[in-house]
Design goal:
Shape: globular
Number of domains: 2
Strand content: 15-25%
CATH topology of the largest domain: Serine Threonine Protein Phosphatase 5, Tetratricopeptide repeat
Number of helices: 6
Largest sheet: 4 strands, antiparallel
Number of strands: 7
CATH architecture of the largest domain: Alpha Horseshoe
Radius of gyration: 20 Å
CATH class of the largest domain: Mainly Alpha
Length: 227
């Protein structure tokens, strides 16, 4: 059991170092914030709650509004409520969620976790993925798009979401940081939105790029694989 824990700690340490490298090596503010938000999860899994809380508060202060601010508030609520059992601080962040994001599904989850009756609260259907609007099922994408893979970082698998305005051949290359092709997928897809599962078999831990080619268009996204 000690060896298993040591292996898990080593993986977590490797993941944190990779996220630190990503944060230092990119200029894009969204990608830098993404790396920090993923580091919060790694620190929490490792049990380093003071560092996870401090980093979440940093993200919250820098982001102010938007999805990263929302997830940081939710992370802080969960850490105080579930990990530290500090009801006073959990209630503080719950009230922040209710004040700033009253219609968010994450706020609804937090309210339920704190014992509030949320059965009579109606959220807009657009925030409930299990109840998509019927009209959305028949609308085809207007343009080719490669979205961020989720989860990311990942192990053992992730899902690559692409939007295709028409049917055709989709080529997905996985490139290493030197631009060499480390993996390759050739797919024939119908027009529409697709989530393509990806589970690498021969990649080493590190940063890679998804290069999606459709017709004469190319888009790229960064991913991180933790082996």
């Amino acid at each position: 059991m000690a060896d298993v824990k040591q292996c898990a700690d080593h993986k977590a340490a490797d993941g944190i170092e990779l996220l630190d490298d990503l944060h230092r090596s990119v200029d894009d503010p969204d990608l830098r914030t993404f790396a920090l938000s993923q580091k919060v999860s790694q620190l929490r899994e490792k049990g380093n709650m003071p560092a996870a809380i401090a980093l979440s508060e940093t993200i919250l202060s820098d982001s102010r509004e938007g999805s990263y601010a929302l997830t940081s508030l939710f992370d802080l609520f969960n850490m105080y409520h579930k990990d530290l059992e500090n009801c006073e601080m959990a209630l503080f962040y719950l009230n922040e969620l209710k004040a700033r994001y009253p219609e968010s599904a994450l706020t609804l989850i937090a309210r339920s976790d704190m014992g509030e009756n949320v059965s009579n609260i109606k959220l807009a259907k657009r925030v409930l993925p299990e109840e998509p609007l019927i009209e959305q099922e028949t609308i085809l994408p207007e343009a080719f798009a490669l979205h961020h893979a989720y989860p990311n970082p990942f192990n053992p698998s992730t899902r690559i979401r692409v939007e295709l305005p028409e049917s055709g051949e989709l080529i997905l290359d996985i490139l290493d940081i030197r631009g060499r092709v480390a993996d390759h997928m050739l797919l024939n897809k119908q027009a529409g939105t697709h989530e393509i599962p990806y589970a690498p078999k021969q990649l080493s831990t590190g940063i890679y790029f998804i290069r999606a080619r459709f017709k004469d268009q190319i888009q790229m996204r960064k991913i991180m694989y933790l082996k």
